[in-house]
Amino acid sequence: MAEETTYYGLLEDIEKYLEYQRDEGVQRLEVDRAVLLALAKEPEVETVKPLKVETVPIPEDFQTLEAISDHISACTNCTLCETRNATVPGEGRGDSPDIMFIGEGPGAEEDAQGRPFVGKAGQLLEKMIEAMGYTREQVFIGNVVKCRPPKNRKPLPEEMEMCLPYLRRQIKLIQPKVIVGLGGTAMEGLLGRPVGITRIRGVWHEYAGIRLMPTFHPSYLLRDPSKKKDAWADLKLVLAALSKEPPPRK
Q1: DSSP 57
Q2: What CA–CA distances, in Å, run from 136 to 24, 45, 129, 198, 228?
Q3: Prediction pTM value
Q4: What EC number(s) are associated with this protein in UniProt (predicted)?
Q5: 88 close to 122: Cβ distance less than 8 angstroms
Q6: What is the pLDDT of residues 43-80, one digit of tens each?
Protein backbone atom coordinates (compact mmCIF):
# COMPACT_ATOMS: atom_id res chain seq x y z
CA MET A 1 0.00 0.00 0.00
CA ALA A 2 2.88 2.37 0.76
CA GLU A 3 4.37 1.65 -2.68
CA GLU A 4 0.97 2.27 -4.30
CA THR A 5 0.51 5.58 -2.45
CA THR A 6 4.01 6.75 -3.43
CA TYR A 7 3.42 5.78 -7.06
CA TYR A 8 0.12 7.62 -7.43
CA GLY A 9 1.41 10.57 -5.43
CA LEU A 10 4.30 10.83 -7.89
CA LEU A 11 1.93 10.69 -10.84
CA GLU A 12 -0.19 13.45 -9.31
CA ASP A 13 2.87 15.65 -8.79
CA ILE A 14 3.95 15.07 -12.39
CA GLU A 15 0.47 15.89 -13.67
CA LYS A 16 0.37 19.17 -11.76
CA TYR A 17 3.89 20.05 -12.92
CA LEU A 18 2.97 19.40 -16.55
CA GLU A 19 -0.20 21.48 -16.18
CA TYR A 20 1.91 24.33 -14.82
CA GLN A 21 4.39 24.06 -17.69
CA ARG A 22 1.51 24.02 -20.19
CA ASP A 23 0.03 27.15 -18.65
CA GLU A 24 3.44 28.79 -18.90
CA GLY A 25 3.47 28.09 -22.63
CA VAL A 26 5.99 25.22 -22.63
CA GLN A 27 5.19 22.84 -25.51
CA ARG A 28 8.04 20.30 -25.28
CA LEU A 29 9.89 18.65 -22.40
CA GLU A 30 12.83 16.25 -22.51
CA VAL A 31 12.23 13.12 -20.42
CA ASP A 32 14.80 10.42 -19.72
CA ARG A 33 13.74 7.05 -21.18
CA ALA A 34 14.53 5.32 -17.88
CA VAL A 35 11.98 7.54 -16.15
CA LEU A 36 9.31 6.62 -18.69
CA LEU A 37 10.04 2.91 -18.26
CA ALA A 38 9.82 3.22 -14.47
CA LEU A 39 6.50 5.02 -14.67
CA ALA A 40 5.15 2.39 -17.06
CA LYS A 41 5.55 -0.29 -14.38
CA GLU A 42 2.34 0.36 -12.50
CA PRO A 43 2.31 -1.50 -9.16
CA GLU A 44 -0.06 -4.37 -8.74
CA VAL A 45 -3.00 -3.39 -6.61
CA GLU A 46 -5.82 -5.35 -5.11
CA THR A 47 -8.94 -5.31 -7.24
CA VAL A 48 -11.58 -3.23 -5.52
CA LYS A 49 -15.21 -4.14 -5.90
CA PRO A 50 -17.26 -1.23 -7.30
CA LEU A 51 -18.95 0.69 -4.53
CA LYS A 52 -22.69 1.17 -4.44
CA VAL A 53 -24.10 4.52 -3.45
CA GLU A 54 -27.64 5.68 -2.99
CA THR A 55 -28.29 8.91 -4.86
CA VAL A 56 -31.04 11.13 -3.51
CA PRO A 57 -32.00 14.64 -4.63
CA ILE A 58 -30.41 17.50 -2.68
CA PRO A 59 -33.01 20.04 -1.54
CA GLU A 60 -32.68 23.52 -2.98
CA ASP A 61 -34.46 25.27 -0.12
CA PHE A 62 -32.10 24.85 2.84
CA GLN A 63 -32.77 27.74 5.21
CA THR A 64 -29.64 27.52 7.38
CA LEU A 65 -26.01 26.47 7.07
CA GLU A 66 -26.61 24.01 9.90
CA ALA A 67 -29.29 22.27 7.84
CA ILE A 68 -26.85 21.97 4.94
CA SER A 69 -24.17 20.53 7.24
CA ASP A 70 -26.61 17.97 8.64
CA HIS A 71 -27.60 16.87 5.15
CA ILE A 72 -23.96 16.63 4.06
CA SER A 73 -23.13 14.41 7.05
CA ALA A 74 -25.60 11.80 5.79
CA CYS A 75 -24.95 12.25 2.06
CA THR A 76 -24.27 9.10 0.01
CA ASN A 77 -24.60 10.59 -3.47
CA CYS A 78 -21.12 9.58 -4.64
CA THR A 79 -18.49 7.00 -3.74
CA LEU A 80 -16.49 9.49 -1.65
CA CYS A 81 -18.91 8.69 1.17
CA GLU A 82 -17.45 5.17 1.38
CA THR A 83 -13.91 6.28 2.24
CA ARG A 84 -14.46 9.42 4.33
CA ASN A 85 -13.95 9.64 8.06
CA ALA A 86 -15.78 12.93 8.41
CA THR A 87 -17.63 15.33 6.16
CA VAL A 88 -16.22 18.86 5.88
CA PRO A 89 -19.04 21.31 5.15
CA GLY A 90 -17.00 24.47 5.82
CA GLU A 91 -16.77 26.99 8.62
CA GLY A 92 -16.51 30.66 9.49
CA ARG A 93 -18.74 33.69 9.44
CA GLY A 94 -22.00 32.81 7.73
CA ASP A 95 -23.65 36.24 7.57
CA SER A 96 -22.30 38.35 4.72
CA PRO A 97 -18.56 38.09 5.37
CA ASP A 98 -16.24 40.19 3.26
CA ILE A 99 -14.60 37.07 1.80
CA MET A 100 -15.46 33.42 1.16
CA PHE A 101 -12.51 31.17 0.29
CA ILE A 102 -13.30 28.04 -1.75
CA GLY A 103 -10.86 25.18 -2.32
CA GLU A 104 -11.26 21.85 -4.10
CA GLY A 105 -11.74 19.33 -1.28
CA PRO A 106 -10.61 18.08 2.13
CA GLY A 107 -7.23 16.45 2.70
CA ALA A 108 -6.15 13.94 5.34
CA GLU A 109 -6.15 16.38 8.28
CA GLU A 110 -9.46 17.85 7.24
CA ASP A 111 -10.96 14.37 6.87
CA ALA A 112 -9.79 13.53 10.39
CA GLN A 113 -11.04 16.73 12.03
CA GLY A 114 -14.10 17.59 9.93
CA ARG A 115 -12.77 21.13 9.41
CA PRO A 116 -11.51 22.80 6.21
CA PHE A 117 -7.91 23.83 5.65
CA VAL A 118 -6.30 22.65 8.88
CA GLY A 119 -3.27 20.87 7.39
CA LYS A 120 -0.09 22.51 6.07
CA ALA A 121 -1.97 24.22 3.24
CA GLY A 122 -4.50 25.43 5.78
CA GLN A 123 -1.79 26.89 7.96
CA LEU A 124 -0.51 28.86 4.99
CA LEU A 125 -4.03 30.00 4.10
CA GLU A 126 -4.50 31.22 7.66
CA LYS A 127 -1.32 33.30 7.35
CA MET A 128 -2.62 34.74 4.09
CA ILE A 129 -5.91 35.62 5.73
CA GLU A 130 -4.12 37.28 8.65
CA ALA A 131 -1.90 39.24 6.23
CA MET A 132 -5.10 40.62 4.73
CA GLY A 133 -6.20 41.84 8.15
CA TYR A 134 -8.75 39.11 8.95
CA THR A 135 -9.06 36.03 11.13
CA ARG A 136 -10.48 32.65 10.16
CA GLU A 137 -13.60 33.48 12.13
CA GLN A 138 -14.23 36.63 10.09
CA VAL A 139 -14.29 34.86 6.71
CA PHE A 140 -15.92 31.66 5.46
CA ILE A 141 -13.78 28.75 4.25
CA GLY A 142 -15.20 25.86 2.26
CA ASN A 143 -14.61 23.44 -0.62
CA VAL A 144 -16.27 22.28 -3.81
CA VAL A 145 -16.54 18.70 -2.49
CA LYS A 146 -17.24 17.99 1.15
CA CYS A 147 -15.54 14.59 1.45
CA ARG A 148 -11.88 13.70 0.94
CA PRO A 149 -11.03 12.10 -2.41
CA PRO A 150 -8.84 8.98 -1.90
CA LYS A 151 -5.11 9.75 -1.82
CA ASN A 152 -5.98 13.45 -2.13
CA ARG A 153 -6.60 13.04 -5.86
CA LYS A 154 -8.49 15.66 -7.83
CA PRO A 155 -12.27 15.28 -7.44
CA LEU A 156 -13.87 13.64 -10.46
CA PRO A 157 -16.30 15.75 -12.52
CA GLU A 158 -19.24 13.61 -11.40
CA GLU A 159 -18.21 13.98 -7.75
CA MET A 160 -18.09 17.76 -8.08
CA GLU A 161 -21.42 17.80 -9.89
CA MET A 162 -23.06 15.80 -7.10
CA CYS A 163 -21.66 18.08 -4.39
CA LEU A 164 -22.03 21.49 -6.02
CA PRO A 165 -25.69 22.00 -4.99
CA TYR A 166 -24.49 22.23 -1.38
CA LEU A 167 -21.92 24.90 -2.26
CA ARG A 168 -24.40 26.86 -4.38
CA ARG A 169 -26.88 27.01 -1.50
CA GLN A 170 -24.12 27.91 0.97
CA ILE A 171 -23.09 30.85 -1.20
CA LYS A 172 -26.69 31.98 -1.53
CA LEU A 173 -27.18 31.90 2.25
CA ILE A 174 -23.79 33.35 3.16
CA GLN A 175 -23.80 36.14 0.55
CA PRO A 176 -20.09 37.02 0.76
CA LYS A 177 -18.98 40.30 -0.73
CA VAL A 178 -16.13 38.57 -2.61
CA ILE A 179 -15.32 34.92 -3.38
CA VAL A 180 -11.70 33.76 -3.69
CA GLY A 181 -11.31 30.57 -5.73
CA LEU A 182 -8.26 28.65 -4.55
CA GLY A 183 -6.78 26.74 -7.47
CA GLY A 184 -7.91 25.47 -10.84
CA THR A 185 -10.21 22.73 -9.51
CA ALA A 186 -12.18 25.16 -7.36
CA MET A 187 -12.53 27.52 -10.32
CA GLU A 188 -13.55 24.63 -12.57
CA GLY A 189 -16.35 23.79 -10.15
CA LEU A 190 -17.50 27.40 -9.86
CA LEU A 191 -17.31 28.23 -13.58
CA GLY A 192 -18.41 24.83 -14.85
CA ARG A 193 -15.53 24.45 -17.30
CA PRO A 194 -11.83 23.45 -17.31
CA VAL A 195 -9.47 26.35 -16.58
CA GLY A 196 -5.75 27.04 -16.34
CA ILE A 197 -5.21 28.80 -13.04
CA THR A 198 -1.97 30.43 -14.22
CA ARG A 199 -3.88 32.08 -17.05
CA ILE A 200 -6.91 33.29 -15.10
CA ARG A 201 -5.45 34.15 -11.68
CA GLY A 202 -5.65 37.81 -10.85
CA VAL A 203 -8.50 38.37 -13.32
CA TRP A 204 -11.94 39.18 -11.93
CA HIS A 205 -14.80 36.79 -12.70
CA GLU A 206 -18.35 36.65 -11.39
CA TYR A 207 -20.38 33.94 -9.70
CA ALA A 208 -24.09 34.43 -8.96
CA GLY A 209 -23.61 38.19 -9.03
CA ILE A 210 -20.66 38.04 -6.63
CA ARG A 211 -17.14 39.12 -7.63
CA LEU A 212 -14.85 36.09 -7.93
CA MET A 213 -11.05 36.26 -7.77
CA PRO A 214 -9.02 33.19 -8.85
CA THR A 215 -5.64 32.59 -7.25
CA PHE A 216 -3.26 29.73 -6.52
CA HIS A 217 -4.16 27.03 -4.02
CA PRO A 218 -2.01 27.17 -0.86
CA SER A 219 -0.77 23.62 -1.50
CA TYR A 220 0.62 24.79 -4.84
CA LEU A 221 2.34 27.70 -3.09
CA LEU A 222 3.98 25.21 -0.72
CA ARG A 223 5.41 23.38 -3.73
CA ASP A 224 6.43 26.58 -5.52
CA PRO A 225 7.00 29.41 -3.00
CA SER A 226 8.08 31.74 -5.82
CA LYS A 227 4.38 32.10 -6.71
CA LYS A 228 3.48 33.54 -3.31
CA LYS A 229 4.06 37.07 -4.59
CA ASP A 230 1.52 36.48 -7.36
CA ALA A 231 -1.04 35.14 -4.91
CA TRP A 232 -0.46 38.12 -2.64
CA ALA A 233 -1.01 40.47 -5.59
CA ASP A 234 -4.35 38.73 -6.20
CA LEU A 235 -5.36 39.11 -2.56
CA LYS A 236 -4.45 42.79 -2.61
CA LEU A 237 -6.88 43.19 -5.52
CA VAL A 238 -9.52 41.62 -3.30
CA LEU A 239 -8.76 44.09 -0.52
CA ALA A 240 -8.91 46.99 -2.97
CA ALA A 241 -12.34 45.81 -4.14
CA LEU A 242 -13.42 45.93 -0.49
CA SER A 243 -11.92 49.42 -0.09
CA LYS A 244 -9.34 48.07 2.32
CA GLU A 245 -5.56 47.98 2.54
CA PRO A 246 -3.27 45.33 4.06
CA PRO A 247 -2.47 46.10 7.70
CA PRO A 248 1.14 47.00 8.57
CA ARG A 249 3.34 43.94 8.98
CA LYS A 250 4.21 43.10 12.54
Answers
A1: P
A2: 32, 40, 7, 26, 19
A3: 0.80
A4: 3.2.2.27
A5: no
A6: 554 444 445 566 778 888 999 999 999 999 999 999 99
